Amino acid sequence: MELDFRKNPHLLSTMIDAIADGVFTVDAKGTIVAWSVGASRITGYTSEDTVGNSCHLLEGQNCKGFSKLTEFLDNPSPYPWGICNQECKVLGKDGRELYLFGNVSVLRDDKGVVVGAVGTFADLTSFVLANEKIQVLEEQTRSRDAFHKMVGKSSIMQEVFRRLRLAAQGDVTVLLTGESGTGKELAARAIHALSARSDRPFFAINCSAIPETLLESELFGHVKGAFTGAVRDKVGVFQAADGGTLFLDEIGDTSQLLQLKLLRVLQEGEIRRVGDDKAMKVDVRLITATNRDFKTLLATGAMREDFYYRIRVFEIILPPLRERREDIPLLVHHFISEGSRTHRHPITDIAKDAMQHLMNHPWPGNIRELKNAVEHAFVTVSEDVLTILDLPPELRTHQPVSNSSSSVLSLTPEQIEERRGIVEALGRASGSKTQAAKLLGMSRVTLWKKLNKLGIDS
Fold first, then answer.
1. Does 9-123 carry CATH code 1.10.150.170?
2. Assigned fold of 155-317
3. Cα maximum dimension of the chain
4. Topology of the domain comprising 411-453
5. Could you tell me the residue ranges of all domains in the chain?
6. What is the pTM of this model?
């Protein structure tokens, strides 16, 4: 059977009503003569409400598709292709403001006389409102709960922010300690950004990611012919960062020989490129970081004692996420805002049970693990609310939080450092209290007392 819309206008009407977007037509005076089912669903106005009425019924702001449609009909010549890709705001039947996106084209008879216009529009309201909510969340995280891309409202993080400000005011060497994934590089960048060196270069090097044989050249540079493959002079990061800040992560993984050369830079303010017999003056603020236990490094001889005390002029401890659980909701919404922009999929909220699972997780990977969990959710989420089914599988199983987690928030920085050392010792001793006590140089009874005092599960 041949489809002839001219002989069967009902067929054309049925097809238009099957379209999810709104479709309407007006006559030459701007009176609505047809209103599709999609248009009714979006605006709340039925065809009985609209047909026979002026398009001003849907008056909106800056809307060429509706409130200025009569102007278009009177003089369509400035728009030879119609009004295309227009965004406008109109009022729905229930009084809500609707954000629409659509096109309007003029209709002419066989003689070219304007007889009306046809328009289509899609509903962008949920998308626009989601973006507005994201902007509100971003404004919230830019308040006192955020510090140069670091997020946290807990008392322990407010103390970290205070010490970062103090570090920025001076020009001393700073040591950042904490477990992997606690944000040590962000802390280093915050110090640099707030310092008098903020307009100078910032470089970050992960000492454990570069082979020892290449790390010296990367830091200090080399001259042509210094070793096989050195076909030209190379500028090291110390020279490149002159006047600025150099962040050396995983400083505990460097050899004693390299530590000695770094110590010379700190004491003399000069470097010597590999293969060069001349020293070169540099002015670099050094920030180092590690997630390793310095007591063990010193005891085993892996770290020089003089180097340790030289880099530990001002220490800042970055707490693990399990010791600042009250910051988890803030961090989650922060990562949701970032992901909404990156993935172009606005998420407006997270379900309560999903948030509860995030609050209960032990987070051995700290903030980095939490961010990855939210990133995973953006791959699976289909609506605008993140649910428990969108979380990684290992987070869906309920894991109760220790009752001691709340008391951890009240510990002093010194107690937190002691607590971390005990936890690391227990890990090396595979949970054996006796062996851990030996590693810490204390009696088993003393260790038990500290476990209770510092809120460590025994």
1. no
2. Rossmann fold (3.40.50)
3. 103
4. Arc Repressor Mutant, subunit A (1.10.10)
5. 9-123, 155-317, 411-453
6. 0.58
The pLDDT, as a whole number, for residue 406 is 43
pLDDT band for position 130 (50/70/90)? confident
Mean pLDDT of the chain: 82
The string of DSSP codes covering 439-456 is HHTS-HHHHHHHHHHTT-
- Residue bearing the bigger pLDDT, 53 or 87: 53
Q: Give the per-residue SS3 of 377-420.
A: HHHHCCCCEECHHHCCHHHHCCCCCCCCHHHHCCCCHHHHHHHH
Q: Rounded distance, CA 66 to CA 238, Å?
A: 63
Cα(287)–Cα(272) distance, integer angstroms: 20
Q: What is the pLDDT of residue 203?
A: 95
3-state secondary structure of 164: helix
With a pLDDT cut of 90, the percent of the chain lying above it is 33
**Which of the 8 DSSP states describes residue 274?**
B
- Sheet containing 314-317, strands listed edge to edge, beginning at the edge strand earlier in sequence: 202-206, 245-249, 285-290, 174-177, 314-317
- Sheet containing 32-35: give its strands across: 32-35, 22-27, 114-123, 97-108, 83-91, 60-61
* 3-state SS assignment for residue 91: strand
CB proximity list for 315: less than 8 A, separation 6 or greater: 174, 175, 176, 177
The pLDDT tens digits of the residues spanning 210-226 come to: 888 889 889 998 888 77
Q: Which one, of 268, 267, 251, 265, lies nearest residue 304 by Cα?
A: 251
| Angle at CA of residue 72, ends 71 and 78, nearest 5° | 115
The answer to whether 271 and 282 have CB atoms below 8 angstroms apart is yes
